[in-house]
Design brief:
203 residues, alpha/beta, eight-stranded mixed beta sheet, globular
Length: 203
Amino acid sequence: MTSIDCLTIEAADPTAAERFYTDAFGLDKQVRLRASEEPTSGFRGFTVSLVVSQPSIVNGLFAAALAAGATELKPAKRSFWGYGGVVQAPDGTIWQLASSSKKDTGPDSRQIDEIVLLLGVSDMAATKRFYVERGLAVAKSFGSKYVEFDGSASPVKLSLYGRRGLAKVAGVPPEGSGSHRLTIGGDAGTFTDPDGFTWEPAA
């Protein structure tokens, strides 16, 4: 089964970005940094979710991200699906911090249960078919709105979302152009998907 081992985020200052991800989220294996001056503007077409077990962990990660220099896009609060908020890292990457639980059952452990890459796509059927042909198994599918692939054996899970819908979830306008400033590292080889997201073998 195809797996994602890491995400390489391209940043103008990779040293500062690495410091942010270590200080804010404690991520040093699943997120790598690469220097890039590729033009990019607006919504880059993806978000990364950190899924945790309870609201106190969301609050801890949220506060740590803001202290490390992130910008708040949506405050952490309860919703009908759970508890969460959205921040944008100094390098421009948008992070969703979320828990399906609305109540705390213990102290903030800072434990991250899942990392989920959500790609905003323009043609759900075509992109879903593209990834199935490359060895990803569909775990959940809701028509043209959302597709979740089986990531049980993968450090990073992959989901597809309509681009406009994902931008709304992130709290930003859907317009954007230029580089995604993201490379997906896995075992599926080197290719570019229908929405311009590039994959490469994880070193």
